[in-house]
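Dear V.,

Thank you for sending over the compound details. I've combined the ligand you provided, magnesium ion, with the protein sequence from our construct and run the structure prediction for the complex. I'm sharing the raw inputs here so there's no ambiguity about protonation or stereochemistry in the SMILES, which I know was a concern on your side last time.
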Amino acid sequence: MTALLEVTDLCVDYSGLRAVDGLSISLAHGTIMGLIGPNGAGKTTTIDALCGFVPQVRGSILLDGHPIDSLPPHMRARAGLVRTFQSIELFVDLSVEENLLVATSTSRWWSPFVDAVAPRRHVHRDDVNLALDTVGLRSLATARPSDLSHGQRRLVGVARALASRPKLVLLDEPAAGLDPAETASLGQMLRNLPELGIAVLLVDHDMSLVLDVCDRLTVVDFGQVIASGVPMDVREDPSVISAYLGGGS
Ligand SMILES: Nc1ncnc2c1ncn2[C@@H]1O[C@H](COP(=O)(O)OP(=O)(O)O)[C@@H](O)[C@H]1O
Ligand SMILES: [Mg+2]
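Below is the predicted structure of the protein with magnesium ion bound, written out as structure tokens.
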């Protein structure tokens, strides 16, 4: 069966620094893959490159068997590849549900902004409601981001990604700043996504979350894959222990 995401030999440079160095990953439909590694290992850059936010020097990216490397970011999102940001990036003047409505339109470049103030298609409301139910925030639909806790804002960022009904969501440190109870409910929610037809690439430092929810792990260091496999094997890998798990972060 064709992998949902097949990345081969991806390389990204920042003015002379090779931040991602020949990275290859294969993510199957209906699965959750963890992408872990020390600070500066190239995890966020990998997400940026997959979404087209930074140019790749080399490599190929197939989504469901189709090359997406030459598509601009919004076309990749329409193809079903969406991401969250490490820094959340909500629209502060919009309500929670308006923040999600911005994500749901696919018709014209201005439609997201129109739909944010006057949604016309009920299907969008359904998508938004499903996304809010998935993260458990339906009761806060009319709240503003400033009324929410940090953990709730992070979940709105995740819900906004889910509202576009992606095939694959790339989550950049969704548990950062969450308390243990919030992290546990995030984990529960992530485990439900494959049933909704949404696969996940999860970047996070919280090893208990990553080990708990991921079917497979890919470990990167200095932009290169140093180990990959099922969590049980990867956590025992000596190179992983010395590069990351033993590092205490
Ligand atoms: N915009 C940028 N310009 C220059 N260097 C960058 C930029 N973003 C990240 N880097 C560098 O690229 C490397 C990988 O960074 P990053 O992808 O953010 O790592 P991670 O998300 O794993 O912590 C680091 O050495 C970092 O300093
Ligand atoms: Mg990062």
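A first observation: The first strand starts at residue 5 and ends at 14.

Warm regards,
I. M.
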